[in-house]
Automatic annotation (TrEMBL):
One MF annotation (Gene Ontology) recorded for this entry: zinc ion binding
Occurrences of domain FLYWCH-type (ranges): 11-68
Cleavable signal peptide: none
Listed InterPro entries: Znf_FLYWCH
Keyword Metal-binding: yes
Record carries keyword Metal-binding: yes
Gene3D superfamilies registered for this protein in UniProt: 2.20.25.240
Bilayer-spanning residue ranges: none
Protein's recorded name: FLYWCH-type domain-containing protein
Length: 163
């Protein structure tokens, strides 16, 4: 497990390809882009946390930060956790095996190291991400009447009369 250096900015993308930034062991979501900077808000999920991070437009440099709420927790492994979710998403989209089998395989590999085992996403955290990713890659078949729409209109009328 590679822990981030405190002032290093690292990027991760979420299930819906939303960009997130990890800085000083905290995760931020892009709120808005101004003319001169980008404003990122704390993504911890803590109620009342108004922690903000302002970066330059290419997000390579931190301009200033805002205070976090007292109950807002620091997650030193947020980057690793999000990386693993992205890997599960990638595998689910490209691998025809059952999603649970893919998860079990990656989980067993990650749990061989005690440092990473505790921070690997749980099945509940990964399930929706994996199924959503697969659904985008392999959309469901259309409803039952789809064959009729492929036939020429005369054949459709004959088909309806025969019923």
């Amino acid at each position: 497990l590679l822990l981030m250096e405190s002032d290093e900015i690292q990027f991760v993308s979420t299930q819906r390809n939303q960009q997130k930034v990890v800085y000083r062991e905290r995760c931020y979501t892009l709120k808005r882009t101004n003319r001169n900077d980008k404003c990122w808000i704390c993504a911890s999920g803590s109620r009342g946390c108004f922690g903000k991070l302002y970066t330059n437009l290419d997000a390579s440099e931190v301009i200033r930060t805002g205070e976090h709420a007292e109950g807002c927790r620091v997650d030193a492994h947020a980057f690793y956790h999000q990386q693993q979710l992205n890997e599960l998403k990638r595998l689910a989209a490209g691998d025809p095996r059952p999603v649970l089998e893919i998860y079990d395989e990656l989980a067993s590999n990650a749990t061989t190291s005690p440092e990473t085992a505790a921070y690997f996403p749980t099945w509940e955290q990964a399930r929706n991400t994996m199924y959503y990713s697969r659904l985008k890659r392999y959309p469901p078949l259309p409803a039952s009447g789809w064959i009729c729409s492929l036939l020429p209109s005369r054949q459709q009328r004959n088909l309806v009369r025969n019923f």
